[in-house]
Amino acid sequence: MKSIIRYLPMAFFVMTMGTACKKYIDVTNPDTLVDPTFWKTENSVRTYAWEFYNSFPGFGNNSNTNGDFYFPTLSDDQASPSLAQFPSNPPVTNADWTVNTTYLVGSTWTYAFVSFGYVRKANIMLERVDLVPMADEAKNHWKGVACFFRALQYFKMVQEFGGVPWYGHSTTISDSGQIYKPRDPRQLVMDSVLADLNYAVANLRQADQPNTINKDVALALKARVCLYEGTYRKYHTELGLPDADKYLTEAKNAAQTLISSPSYALDKSYQTAYNSENLSGDKEIILYKRYEATFLQHSLISYLYSSTAMNGPTKSAVESYLCKDGLPIGLSPLYKGDATVSDVMANRDSRLGITIDSSYYYYIGHVKNSLSSSTGYRPIKYLPDTSRLKSIPTSINTSTTDAPLFWLAEVYLNYAEAAAELGTITQADLDNTINKLRDRANVAHLTLDPGFTDPRKDADVSSLIWEIRRERRAELMMDGFRFQDLMRWKKGYYMDYTANPDAYLGAKVPSNGTVKLNPNGYITPYKLPVTRTFADRNYLSPIPTSQLALYPKDIADHMQNPGW
Fold first, then answer.
1. Rounded distance, CA 363 to CA 371, Å?
2. Using CA atoms, how far apart are residues 150 and 116, in angstroms rounded to an integer?
3. 488 and 235 in contact (C-beta within 8 Å)?
4. Cβ(286)–Cβ(217) below 8 Å
5. Measured between alpha carbons, how far is residue 49 from residues 10, 11, 124 in Å?
6. Half-sphere CA count of 326, side-chain side, radius 13 A
7. First CA to last CA across the chain, in angstroms?
8. Whether this model's pTM surpasses 0.90
9. Distance CA 19, CA 113 (A)
10. Residues with Cβ < 8 Å from 10, sequence gap 6 or more?
């Protein structure tokens, strides 16, 4: 029998919508959560912390399509049936920047845990833990949990907005001078995030309860955050931000600790991390989001079996996969072309045939079992094994496959990229990271000198870094990383139609009088001419106007991001 504790992080929101929310509303001051009867035992601290786990989207919750995996389409890897556009004007609202996070439930004001709400919740926890009679080790662990989630939330906001107001203590609704203070510089915010992560790594338990935040999870987040910030600072030279190498070194060292641990190993199958009913005990997984019938389910599988046209992988994405000899399709004698789906799949990286259907193109006028894709390429990476399909519920809000949140393959990629950017990478490093992934994908090893130059390579990076980036793209295809990877590498123009038309095309198929094709016979999901351009202002999102209106004018006049 599976332990109920594994359900708690993903079920807490459901449970608290009933009795627990009523409890907090009944205290003297529910906005500040200073109920003197609450902070009494370690279990009360643990209960308070469960809500943080809702900040992990995973495969999404219930019937929504807000998951990290597959659903994001603003990249060069997928084409949604309706063209995803960059905003032309700042939005009125955006939950990712919400300072005023109180809202009405009936006639009662309560608190929304989004955006700065999670920051405030973490700060309250940091301020209350010392009130609880427990050992210093326990206090330090729970402070580490709060620091972890504060760092995670600020990292997400910095990715989207750049500099944001840093709050190192909780604020009350009457403290408007602090709530509506100016943005802090990106450097200050990210240095504070790094300090939080260092505290978490130093103080979190190696293991608390199954599938909860621990030291290794903090190391995985640190590697992810520091790689992002180090490369962002390196390539966005217009910002003049220092310490890129410091962040890259921190990323490399954090990843190295996990790589060296005997606790983790790659799964034999690339697909195991994505289509398993239970990731408990999987040695590739560091933290996962648990789904279970009656507790929490998702709709990713049902979407991939829906008659609605799927978000298909693009020609750009499919052609990025290597041939088995380790060469790109423009150089490999093994590449058979793209006249048929069989030709496309022949002699290729095995992840390609696991990520998309290798037997059939699904498109308008050429459907199968009512399935179609915007590009002809049908995603299958997240589907359960075909021998079990008839026993797997495929209607909305019935999927229970678990979602990886931090896993070893990403750690390998983070290490290799950080080391390559620092110029310290060795062949042994490649063999311990990239080449383990390639072994699983049946692709020849990468060497320090790749021995070739991809004709499509950008001039501003070395062949080695180009190949490491390619490996990241293939390994994490549709996993929600691509957009932010392009942002940190300063490659936003990959999403510009003029610069990268292959990001707006699909498979090469014969005309059937229904599907839209370009002059060369490739599916075009959109009516031509396509108009999507990328401007430098798109590296950061605009702050919502309703939030700006809450600030004093002298502050609001300087709050918006450049170009907006």
1. 8
2. 9
3. yes
4. yes
5. 12, 13, 11
6. 18
7. 54
8. yes
9. 17
10. 53, 54, 58, 289, 290, 291, 292, 295, 296
pLDDT means per 10 residues in the chain (564 residues)? 35 33 30 67 96 96 94 94 92 86 47 78 96 97 98 98 96 80 97 98 97 98 98 98 98 98 98 97 98 95 92 98 98 98 98 96 94 96 76 83 98 99 98 98 98 97 98 98 98 95 97 96 90 94 94 94 97
Nearest to residue 471, comparing CAs of 404, 420, 406?
420
Residue by residue, DSSP assigns 201-242 as HHHS-S-SSTTS--HHHHHHHHHHHHHHHHHHHHH-GGG---
Select from 487, 488, 491, 423 the least CA-distant residue to 457.
Answer: 491
Distances (CA, A) of 119 to 130, 145, 257, 366, 389: 18, 12, 28, 49, 42
Distance CA(35)–CA(17), nearest Å, equals 19
> Residue 371's beta-bridge partner residues?
368
DSSP symbol at 524: -
The torsion region of residue 287 among left (phi > 0), alpha (psi -120 to 50) and beta comes to beta
The backbone torsions φ and ψ at residue 375, rounded to the nearest 5 degrees and listed phi first, read: -115, 0
Radius of gyration of the chain (CA): 24
User: Residue 272: CB partners within 8 Å, gap ≥ 6?
Assistant: 282, 284
